[in-house]
From TrEMBL:
It comes from Candidula unifasciata. Gene3D superfamilies: Cytochrome P450. Keywords: Cholesterol metabolism, Heme, Iron, Lipid metabolism, Membrane, Metal-binding, Mitochondrion, Mitochondrion inner membrane, Monooxygenase, Oxidoreductase, Steroid metabolism, Steroidogenesis, Sterol metabolism, Transit peptide. It is an enzyme of class 1 (oxidoreductase). Belongs to the cytochrome P450 family. It is found in: Mitochondrion inner membrane. SUPFAM superfamilies: Cytochrome P450. Its main location: mitochondrion. It is a peripheral membrane protein. This is Cholesterol side-chain cleavage enzyme, mitochondrial. Heme binds at C488.
């Protein structure tokens, strides 16, 4: 463990700076036998460290110095944060905010602290430290919720769902919902999901033929959002919305746009959400309006389905035990959640699954279009196993390269770049003492670009995930976040069926423009041509 002088309370920066008055952990050669305190109780007036927050919504993150006393001697650490040019080895398809995160971790090390107002954050980019964090979080993982989501729930007097719930309510919600969303249970939905996949491929063929021979699909990310919304609604409500119809209804399009607006404004409200609410700023008003639209549309369908299954249960419908149990019928039948809690949970699962999986699939299509040799091998794997039939749940384990391509895409473009936890008690991580109520921010994007974890980190190399690969990655170097197994089944089915019908080719007309809007997204348009096989 790195040695750190313990004569003064120390901060957990791990760069190469050294100070005599107040140790900020700015040295790569420290060593200490005892646990080091990760928080500095008072910043020295002689030497102040200007922390850069990851929550800035501007293009160039500013140094936050509100808690520091001497601006003349502030060490701002901003010389490497310029975003006007992209001068490092990473391609122009990387998000600006994540490039900044890379530079900060390169400067300070794999664990360091930042202060934003009265809140302390500890940023981590080491898989071994991430394992420590996740293995010590206890039975009630404390995930810092999106504050804007919580404020909206409070405004409308709602309890919220899995994405915002904490403690016993989170445990009750998760235990009730998880039974019918486990891998074995999700297999029951595959026949219906395959029909959704067929409809998606038909829609892709229709849209790309309507673009004057470019083979491009306009607003491809939006089309993927429609596909995954149709898939998730089918799994959870056992009904189709018509998201993939030739003429999609205005209500469905409005719902998808509301989701996009909610995530965009949610990112803008990452900092000072309460002040935005108090001042009724434009981002706050748009955030509330989008959530209202989401609830109005989704609650109508969820409540309708609750009424249907409640009637079926009262009249002696199918049992709740065994195979092929309707998801919502099971949830209603357990009587563990109130109607309002069911609605809140289902809607938040929608939010956690549609955008994340659509973004991941969009990035996968993009990467396959750029790497023809990988795509050729993947098509051969799919054709050899499936021929002209669709994949079912038993095929997933027999498509190792497809699985590896998905994992490699999640490594290069994690939909949720940062996975966070809040400490509910004092803990020791990596030899540092982390006080209660500290936010631990695990930067998956930075880990994915660390050559000590992944050789040639900027390269799309799915083979690194195949059995027998010499450089085996740490098991906590990839922590996918999102809708879980039920999304993976839909994603695998869609990708395999698309590749059975089309060859993906990279268009030279434009490139993706990744950005973070709470999630990492490639942008609405993708330079991917769908050429009929």
């Amino acid at each position: 463990m790195a040695m750190i002088s313990t004569s003064q309370t120390t901060d957990c920066h791990t760069s190469t700076h050294s100070t005599s008055q107040n140790n900020d952990c700015h040295t790569s050669t420290h060593s200490t036998p005892e646990t080091t305190d990760c928080h500095t109780s008072n910043q020295s007036s002689q030497n102040t460290d200007c922390y850069t927050s990851t929550h800035s919504t501007s293009q160039n993150n500013d140094c936050h110095t509100s808690t520091h006393s001497t601006p003349e001697t502030t060490d701002c650490h901003t010389s490497t944060h310029s975003t006007s040019q992209n001068t490092d080895c990473h391609t122009s398809t990387q998000s600006t905010s994540q490039l900044n995160a890379l530079r900060r971790h390169q400067e300070y090390g794999k664990i360091f602290r930042e202060q934003f107002g009265s809140q302390y954050n500890v940023l981590v980019s080491d898989p071994a430290l991430m394992e420590e964090i996740l293995r010590t979080e206890g039975k009630f993982p404390s995930r810092p919720p999106y504050e804007s989501w919580v404020l909206y729930s409070n405004l409308r007097h709602r309890r919220g769902g899995l994405m915002t719930a904490q403690n016993e309510y989170w445990k009750k919600s998760r235990s009730t919902l998880a039974v019918r969303l486990r891998p074995k249970a999700v297999c029951d939905y595959v026949p219906g999901m395959n029909q959704v996949c067929e409809d998606f491929v038909e829609r892709i063929a229709y849209l790309k033929d309507d673009t004057g021979g470019t083979h491009l699909v306009p607003h491809l990310l939006n089309e993927l959002n429609k596909f995954f919304m149709e898939t998730i609604v089918f799994v959870m409500l056992n009904k189709r919305l018509g998201c993939l119809d030739k003429n999609v209804s205005g209500q469905v399009n409005g719902f998808i746009q509301a989701i996009a607006t909610m995530f965009l404004t949610g990112h803008q409200l990452m900092v000072f959400a309460r002040f935005h609410q108090m001042l009724r700023t434009r981002p706050w008003r748009d955030h509330v309006k989008s959530w209202d639209q989401i609830y109005e549309f989704a609650a109508q369908h969820v409540n309708q389905r609750i009424d249907e299954v409640s009637t079926e249960l009262e009249t002696g419908g199918p049992p709740l035990e065994g195979e092929h149990v309707d998801f919502l019928k099971y949830v209603v039948g357990t009587r563990q959640l109130t109607r309002e809690e069911i609605v809140d949970n289902v809607i938040e699962v929608f939010m956690g699954g549609i955008d994340t999986t659509a973004n991941a699939t969009a990035f996968l299509f993009y990467l396959l279009s750029k790497h023809e040799s990988v795509q050729t091998r993947l098509v051969a794997e799919i054709d050899s196993l499936l021929g002209k039939r669709q994949a079912d749940s038993s095929d997933l384990q027999q498509l190792p390269l497809l699985k590896a391509c998905v994992k490699e895409t999640l490594r290069l473009f994690p939909p949720i770049p940062i996975n966070a936890r809040t400490t509910t008690e004092d803990v020791a991580i990596g030899g540092y003492h982390i006080p209660k109520n500290t936010i631990l921010m695990m930067n998956l994007y930075v880990v994915s670009r660390d050559e000590t974890v992944f050789p040639e980190p900027d390269e799309f190399r799915p083979d690194r995930w195949l059995r027998g690969e010499e450089t085996s990655a740490h098991p906590f170097s990839l922590i996918p976040f999102g809708f879980g197994t039920r999304s993976c089944v839909g994603e695998f089915g869609a990708v395999s069926l698309v590749l059975q019908h089309f060859r993906l080719q990279k268009s030279d007309l434009f490139d993706i423009k990744p950005s973070v809007r709470t999630q990492l997204t490639p942008g609405p348009e993708l330079p991917v041509m769908f050429v009929q096989r």
